[in-house]
Design brief:
Blueprint (H helix, E strand, L loop, with lengths): L2 H18 L1 H10 L4 H21 L11 H19 L1 H4 L7 H12 L15 H16 L1 H8 L8 H7 L12 H25 L4 H11 L18 H14 L3 H8 L5 H4 L1 H21 L7 H16 L14 H13 L12 H19 L8 E2 L2 E2 L2 H27 L4 H12 L20 H15 L3 H4 L10
Antiparallel strand pairs: 1-2
Helix pairs in contact: 1-3, 1-4, 2-3, 2-7, 4-6, 4-9, 6-7, 6-21, 7-11, 8-10, 10-11, 10-12, 10-13, 12-16, 15-16, 16-17, 18-19, 19-20, 19-21, 20-21
């Protein structure tokens, strides 16, 4: 393990993060919100620390290859460092009383979770709200992937960073050159973001709110500059526009690229995307049927609020237009289930991912089939490609770890005095990078009342979910550190 190299790369990431703080700084000067002092301090500390790490760990004599272990270490330690230094603008502002809350908000932003400890969002400075949204936009496609796009001097072996970072069971390069693949992903990501800003502006939303909501829709993050989230607008137009872009954000971004290249049926031909769209439609109809008459009198209202809640949770965005804890039991069970399913692999969504759910179902069916026909040769296929047994074992291991860590974290949170429903809902929301949960952390509450140790535990869950568990948990395996 070449620690000098790892420190060198993380130094580059911190320099980039410090430069990124320039956007909210410009916003502060424009709105005269007096937050510029804290932002300048944050920029200096972050960029200065990054420069120091960069200069003191020169790669002289080192080859440019990053092996798998180093790639995982760079990503896991890099995201932790980004969460810590990204908390500085919050910490130096008047809205946060301690560093724990600032770090919780920061890691929730970068991991695109959207769980918040802010009790009066609209009372915060606009520059801080912009930073809060911007870090979700950066975290959505991944700061590491952005670095591969704009810092090709990371050299050969960057694929190990890409594999550790991209939220997908099987990360594929779109082009032979990794930096070109990263650029394509970011161009598509930024392009769709521009379109969402335009559509929101067309509906009468202010430019600032349009930018903030776009920065948190595309990464399926869920932070909003409004206390009541999207519900504060009470607009069917905004609801449906954001639903469309949440769905787009929940689809594998390589499919968007294929669409742009003229493959108009790319979404439907992809079996995972087809599964995601059909499942979302079916669950929406079920919730619509369940809340029609019992919660909403008109069918159009029932559908509007059902589709928003289902899409928001299954894509792990976490926006809210209704208090789903007041829905009937069936709807609440469906929404809780959506917290685990997640969106498509290769999207900015969290959760287990539809590809893994499909592979799990097909694997279970294969095992049942082999019990009936023990001499048969049955294979698991997705998109007409055979899934190797090695990858199937990895997927089953991931699902087992996901459920196991969910149970253990829920028990630990309950040990801190949190009630059962809140413990289950909070951990499901954080490890799935969703935002709102159940109990006292539902869509109309927040995480401010959580105990200090509980906030650090939930921040850990957010990081686990964002980096697909393996990248983080492997650091605690003793063999990982052996030569």
């Amino acid at each position: 393990m070449r620690w000098s190299y790892i420190i060198h790369i993380n130094g580059i990431l911190l320099i980039f993060l410090g430069v990124a703080m320039g956007l909210p700084l410009l916003c502060s000067f424009y709105f005269h919100d007096m937050a510029h002092v804290g932002l300048i301090k944050s920029m200096g500390i972050t960029a200065g620390t990054g420069a120091l790490m960069f200069l003191l760990s020169k790669r002289t004599g080192l080859d440019h290859y990053i092996n798998q272990k180093e790639g995982m270490a760079v990503v896991a330690l890099g995201w932790t460092a980004i969460g810590l230094f990204g908390a500085l603008p919050f910490y130096f502002g008047p809205e946060f009383a301690n560093f724990t809350d600032a770090f919780f908000e920061s890691i929730s932003g970068f991991t695109t979770t959207g769980s918040s400890v802010m009790t009066n969002i609209e009372g915060a400075s606009k520059s801080l709200l912009l930073w809060r949204s911007f870090i979700q936009w950066l975290g959505g496609m991944g700061i590491i992937v952005l670095s591969l796009a704009i810092l090709p001097f990371l050299g050969v072996g960057g694929i190990q960073l890409y594999k550790a970072e991209v939220p997908s069971p099987v990360p594929d390069k779109l082009t032979p050159r990794l930096s070109d693949s990263a650029k394509i992903l970011w161009v598509v990501y930024a392009g769709i973001s521009v379109f969402e800003i335009i559509f929101l502006l067309a509906g009468g939303m202010s430019l600032f709110d349009s930018v903030c909501h776009t920065f948190t829709t595309m990464p399926t993050g869920g932070f909003s500059p409004k206390n009541s989230s999207i519900a504060s607008y009470n607009s069917a137009y905004f609801d449906y526009v954001i639903v469309i872009f949440m769905v787009l954000a929940g689809i594998n971004f390589s499919l968007h690229y294929q669409m742009l290249r003229g493959k108009t049926l790319a979404f439907w031909k992809d079996s995972e995307c087809r599964f995601f769209l059909i499942l979302t439609a079916v669950l929406t109809l079920m919730v619509t049927w369940d809340i029609y008459g019992s919660v909403y009198e008109s069918l159009s209202e029932a559908f509007r609020y059902a589709v928003f809640q289902i899409v928001s949770i299954i894509t792990t965005t976490g926006f809210a237009t209704a208090d789903y804890e007041k829905f009937p039991g069936l709807s609440q069970v469906i929404i809780f289930m959506c917290m685990f399913i997640g969106a498509c692999a290769g999207s900015t969504g969290g959760g287990m991912k539809c590809a893994r759910i499909m592979a799990c179902f097909k694997y279970c069916y294969r095992e049942l089939f082999k019990l009936i026909h023990p001499r048969s040769v049955a294979q698991v296929r997705i998109n007409n490609h055979v899934i190797p047994d090695e990858l199937l074992r990895s997927i089953m291991g991931f699902l087992a770890l996901y459920i196991g860590l969910f149970i253990i974290s829920s028990i630990l949170l309950a040990c801190l005095g949190v009630d059962m429903m809140t413990s289950l809902g909070a951990v499901a929301a954080c490890i799935g990078n969703i935002g709102p949960g159940f109990g006292t952390v539902g869509p109309v509450e927040n995480f401010a009342h959580m105990p200090v140790l509980g906030k650090w535990l939930l921040a850990w869950c957010m990081l686990l979910g964002r980096l697909e568990i393996y990248t983080v948990i492997i650091l605690f395996v003793p063999e990982f550190w052996k030569k």
